[in-house]
UniProtKB/TrEMBL annotation, chains A, E, F:
<dbReference type="Pfam" id="PF00909">
    <property type="entry name" value="Ammonium_transp"/>
</dbReference>
<feature type="transmembrane region" description="Helical">
    <location>
        <begin position="96"/>
        <end position="117"/>
    </location>
</feature>
<dbReference type="InterPro" id="IPR029020">
    <property type="entry name" value="Ammonium/urea_transptr"/>
</dbReference>
<feature type="transmembrane region" description="Helical">
    <location>
        <begin position="6"/>
        <end position="31"/>
    </location>
</feature>
<comment type="similarity">
    <text>Belongs to the ammonia transporter channel (TC 1.A.11.2) family.</text>
</comment>
<protein>
    <recommendedName>
        <fullName>Ammonium transporter</fullName>
    </recommendedName>
</protein>
<dbReference type="InterPro" id="IPR001905">
    <property type="entry name" value="Ammonium_transpt"/>
</dbReference>
<feature type="transmembrane region" description="Helical">
    <location>
        <begin position="348"/>
        <end position="370"/>
    </location>
</feature>
<feature type="transmembrane region" description="Helical">
    <location>
        <begin position="276"/>
        <end position="297"/>
    </location>
</feature>
Automatic annotation (TrEMBL), chains B, C, D:
<comment type="similarity">
    <text>Belongs to the P(II) protein family.</text>
</comment>
<protein>
    <submittedName>
        <fullName>Nitrogen regulatory protein P-II 1</fullName>
    </submittedName>
</protein>
<dbReference type="InterPro" id="IPR002187">
    <property type="entry name" value="N-reg_PII"/>
</dbReference>
<dbReference type="InterPro" id="IPR015867">
    <property type="entry name" value="N-reg_PII/ATP_PRibTrfase_C"/>
</dbReference>
<dbReference type="InterPro" id="IPR011322">
    <property type="entry name" value="N-reg_PII-like_a/b"/>
</dbReference>
<dbReference type="InterPro" id="IPR017918">
    <property type="entry name" value="N-reg_PII_CS"/>
</dbReference>
<dbReference type="Pfam" id="PF00543">
    <property type="entry name" value="P-II"/>
</dbReference>
Length: 404, 120, 120, 120, 404, 404
């Protein structure tokens, strides 16, 4: 046990924690004012539902010893998860590691909300997140971090590119397709960009805890992660704005925020394995491909990924996974591997396997879960509720009140 | 009471409103009501882009100023409005003139011309 | 159809609007439209100060209530408005009365008096 | 100048406004002014609940579209409005028709019919 | 001295610090837009006034040695409160402990503002908070934490259920009754719920510092506190929303936020003494009873506790104190005691004594202080100012400006 | 290496990091709603641009060994800046120190935006910040912290009164004068004060990291800094509001926020050298002189320092530098010096030299840089863009969208 590490992980946990309300604000500012509360609720409820689920069973089936695909049931109800360090770190309380991971489980679900905004039923979404968290997130976390087959294969995913971002992005995409387009999907006029600014700020702020905290201590790797995270976000902004400037001569604020998040998503799997210049390149390209994802790909394929859960997290996470396979070097992290540019064709290949496996697993399971739920509750609100707004029809509230 | 009550409704840009208001007071206008509106006319629209998706916006921010007068000559108000709001560029707006049947002052119950008088 | 259509436009303080609305319903008014506006009149302005720089503000928050009636007597609406909005202090506002040429109900296409009738 | 100036005031739901606007342009309407208003009519209200305390809200979000025309036939505008805003459910709103005394174009000073002409 | 503990308490202090502006935003979003600045000022000013008061005298009369009822004057002007560890912890600087406690003193006062919103005079509130902090908060803190009679009696209040929440809640209630109802007390239409969301987020965020930090180090108890705080807040959301759903079929965002805070209030006194399942139950019931407090009790008794200072903090804190007497177990914290469910009738009884004593002491003193002040300054603004809004009339400002 | 110190500096870095988006929100709330995005972008872009610049070259020319005026090029591209502690602290990774300083470099630039708001071209500002950061900030940091001539002279500037606040304030002033007044500079009606409240909260929150973190460890001096920072901000609020109350009987929320920042600016250079009572006095006077700066001085001299970059940071920083020369005492910090009140005429004199040198250097360089840029890009937007608002004309966005 090392007290300073515990303090560090307490801080990291707090930082990741605030990303979830950050997502709620980020998304909330982008929808129409009649849907802001519903959208924020989608991203906020995981703090209630997934947290309880996590201590009850989620943590166990993610992280306790099991087979290559599922964790075991040993740690159900936090049985055996106490102050004594667990298998994942000798220097911090096991329960602290569990809480740190709880914030990841919560966050992942809250990202999904971006794909379904402005039309999914609250009850259906709630139900979906519970089942999804158990049957998709938990196994995935086990595969990568809990000693499952992807870990055994030797793929690299430092802070959760696949587990958190690709998974939530692909889920958002599948749900968006299943739900169909919003009635006025063309009118993407964010009702309150300062709110989105604030949300993006909290997300970025928390991301330092997400990435650096994933080192579980402040060591040499952690410091590289810290620098890489800072510069990749910066480069993501530049990457996005440059393309945007080329396309329309107008560098936007929403673009800057989206670029920062793109850069952060892209560096997430790679941050502990690559050099600082590589991080800048990953961020730059991250900003650019995510711009392409939201402005071209989405329009081309015609799905209504309302707030770009896939456009940012799916596309960015995919690029990040590939980039790890390109830029990783053992000179940065001896515990890692060499990527393609350092002669490691092997790693590159494994990274692709991991990404493809994640896509398939997540997409199929999401489809099945949503299909099953649709027999219990309609996934989508009716037309009238959609046009009146989900805040008033589902929650009996309005976000803003004027004097009359 | 062959008095004529006229409502002058000015739809224009918000910019010069403050000075205009002060000038109106000088010529004896006793009250103004103003609202934020959106307007579209001959003026070109502008573009908004969110995450690469561009939308042409043709509604501009305008204000609608309503002035009901009786003794104050309508033409004088029109002249003032043209003086302050004419920029020579499309989008300057229009002035609409209506006749009223009556006006009542809520506080005193006075009607017509009396309702629009500046007490002191 | 020698029916007379009248628009009653009340510019006043927002406070008592809720009760007023309920009273209108009782006398058979079938619809109301209301907007937030700013108004200036005889009422004194107030001061705002930001970082030591003071600005005199003479625009007050008001609402504009529009009621179009045919069968309901205009005077009854005026009386109600005066009852609820008269506080005796400057700023109570005015009631403007206009004549309309016609009114059409979008849903049914009915015109004039019929368009303003309360179905049930 | 036996020209007739008419103001068409449409109070309705905000939804179809965009297409309606484009259709108006096609039939030669040169300008529109639109405002956000609240309305109450035959439509049922909804409930809001904050911390267990419920409030019945009978005011709905509506827009008020004002179109002043001279040469464009009034009936054509009415027909278009009915086409786009008629959903068959209570709350579709009303169209009010007024006569104007005059209209002045601020930029040029043109009056009446000329003020409403589309230059090019 | 233990550097890591100092770092931990630095972090905890920062977290509690941000709860106060959090309260200001939380409350500010719930009032009408013409009163938001005044409401936020009420909760913000303690950061100025109470901070200065605390270093000058407040800390001394709360925490220095005195008798069973008051602390002494030894530490006035921070005399003797320096880098050397004080009596309350061997491992952190005394001045750091003093600052940590300062954030509690500030926060408590800022909560009171909820009861008086939209009608109390700014000057009267300012005066009230100064006197109240010295004559109510300081003694109370001394009773419980400074070695006073409640500490000697053996009541348990881990992070300040009585000292912070019951006290501020009851004070808000008494002031609300003395002030009378707002002119339009029926129209509780929050003008900006996203602002309230943000405030609630900062409050919850900070609460981890509040509860976990109260352990003064990261030890076994601290970790239990961390888990308990997370799950009780989650359960509070669920408790509130379930009842709300039963009553009106509409789970609201404001309900979710209120539920989270209810759960947090309820777990505050108990967090270091109870098991995780108990924490979930305490949170669930916390959400439910607070809903009952704000929706039924308030309406029934007819006081206008505008933003539910009593409904959340008073009711939740009372339940939390009782729950500690029910669920506390020495198996979690040997320094604690066993509650009723573990055979400790004794503790249960003491908890009731503590609560009742707090209610009586706080209510009586608050009444006296407010009464005395009312001879100097009217407590309430006049009718015209109330209807024009307190922002413009008392502060000469408006929160929002449109283009005209 | 001391792990707890690294954790502490990680926290401090995070805290200073969030000040920059805090500035963006603080400023954003104060402008008209048609300029909020542009204003926030000015303060946000340094997170992208200056960060990259810092790791590339900025850190090296600020902190690596050079002559009395410039740092060297040894650390370009973070060459040699790794996990090994650097020359500035034995107990934390060199790269962590570099990141901590990065947040200062970013923040300083983002403060400047206040002077140019609502009229400067985005491209011109971007260009300006890059050049300014290299040719003004980096040398200045070197003079004071990197062993340059001001350090050798023995002037005191604990956390960056000169380097950060005077420099950004004076730059804002010079740019404001060069740009000329806004068309409607008289109408200072903040469009969204709750946003400004939030920004000011994040700024204050982060300032604890700024000041306390500048000690690079939690030692005796760090604790004095912590207390001093808290009380000076509190006193700043009181100082501002008292004067405001005397002038207009209306203590404003914007005044309280501005006062807090004034107090914080004023205590920044002094915080590690003065006693707590001195900190209170510095804060009180800080609030008062900044009020004088924004309400009287600005009006008198007729420049349009739109959001008072100079009024708060320039004036407050100047007072703070002088106050350090008055109140510093070696009894608080043996590594400091005695100010005038403790017989140290010497220090007082040096403080004046440092301030005057900073004013002259910054003003002249700013003028030259802006002049040069004006030959490439017009510094100011045209009249039509200014009246339509910079958000739509420069960024193709609007901050808020209503339902129509
Ligand atoms: N026929 C009309 N009916 C209603 N409003 C109009 C009409 N014509 C113009 N407006 C209002 O006046 C504003 C300015 O009109 P526009 O035609 O753009 O300018 P100009 O009159 O200078 O050519 C429009 O945005 C609209 O709000
Ligand atoms: N002549 C007018 N034309 C248009 N609006 C008016 C006129 N007179 C008054 N109003 C509106 O009525 C409001 C109240 O009028 P005011 O003169 O202050 O009160 P009172 O009628 O009680 O003296 C004003 O704020 C303004 O909105
Ligand atoms: N008599 C009226 N005067 C003013 N506004 C009206 C009137 N009748 C209806 N309205 C406006 O039209 C809107 C729709 O009216 P409503 O009666 O609900 O629908 P419908 O005409 O389809 O029955 C109302 O919300 C209100 O704003």
């Amino acid at each position: 046990m090392e007290l300073a590490d515990s303090v560090f992980m307490f801080v990291a946990t707090m930082l990741v924690w605030i990303m979830t309300p950050g997502i709620a604000l980020f998304y909330g500012g982008m929808v129409k004012s009649k849907n802001v509360l519903n959208t924020a609720m989608h991203s906020y409820m995981p703090l209630a539902v997934i947290s309880i689920l996590w201590v009850t069973i989620g943590y166990s089936i993610s992280f306790s010893e099991g087979n290559a695909f599922f964790g075991g049931l040993d740690w159900i109800g936090l049985n055996g998860v106490g102050f004594e360090p667990g298998p994942y770190s000798d220097t911090i309380p096991h329960s602290l590691f569990m809480l740190f991971q709880m914030t990841f489980a919560v966050l992942t679900v809250s990202i999904i909300a971006g794909g379904v905004a402005e039309r999914m039923k609250f009850s259906a979404f709630l139900l979906f997140t519970i089942i999804w968290s158990l049957f998709v997130y938990a196994p995935l976390a086990h595969w990568v971090w809990g000693g499952g087959w992807l870990a055994q294969l030797g793929t690299l995913d430092f802070a959760g590119g696949n587990v958190v971002h690709v998974s939530s992005g692909v889920t958002g995409l599948v749900l968006a397709i299943m739900l169909g387009k919003r009635k006025l999907s063309g009118e993407n006029t964010p009702h309150n960009l300062p709110l989105t600014f604030l949300g993006a700020t909290l997300i970025w702020f928390g991301w330092y805890g997400f990435n650096v905290g994933s080192a579980l201590t402040i060591n040499e790797v952690a410091m590289v992660v810290f620098v890489n995270t800072a510069v990749a976000a910066a480069a993501g902004i530049l990457g996005w704005l440059v393309i945007e400037y080329i396309c329309s001569r107008k560098p936007t604020m929403l673009g800057a925020l989206s670029g920062a998040i793109s850069g952060l998503v892209a560096i997430t799997p790679a941050c502990g394995f690559v050099t600082v210049p590589a991080a800048i390149i990953i961020g730059l390209i991250g900003g650019a491909v995510c711009f392409w994802g939201v402005s071209y790909l989405k329009g081309k394929l015609g799905y209504d990924d309302a707030l770009d859960a896939f456009g940012l997290h799916g596309v960015g996470g995919t690029w990040g996974g590939i980039a790890t396979g390109l830029f990783a070097t053992t000179s940065v992290n001896p515990g890692g591997a060499n990527g393609l540019l350092y002669g490691g064709f092997d790693l590159f290949w494994k990274q692709l396997v991991a990404i493809v496996a994640t896509y398939i697993f997540v997409a199929v399971l999401t489809f099945i879960i949503a299909k099953v739920i649709s027999y219990l509750v309609p996934l989508r609100v009716n037309e009238e509720d959609e046009s009146l707004g989900l805040d008033i029809t589902l929650h009996g509230e309005k976000a803003y009140h004027e004097s009359i | 009471m062959e008095e004529v009550l006229t409502k002058i409704e000015i739809v224009t840009r918000p910019e010069k409103f403050d000075v205009f208001k002060q000038e109106l007071a000088k010529i004896g206008v006793s009250g103004i009501t103003v609202a934020e509106v959106k307007g579209t006319g001959l003026q070109k629209g502008y573009k908004e882009t969110y995450r690469g998706v561009t939308r042409e916006i043709s509604l501009h921010d305008r204000i609608k100023i309503e002035i009901v007068v009786c003794e104050v000559p309508v033409q004088q108000v029109i002249d003032l409005a043209r003086k302050y709001f004419n920029t020579g560029k499309p989008g300057d707006g229009k002035i609409f003139i209506y006749e009223l049947a009556n006006v009542i002052k809520i506080r005193t119950g006075e009607e017509g011309r009396a309702a629009l008088k500046n007490e002191q």
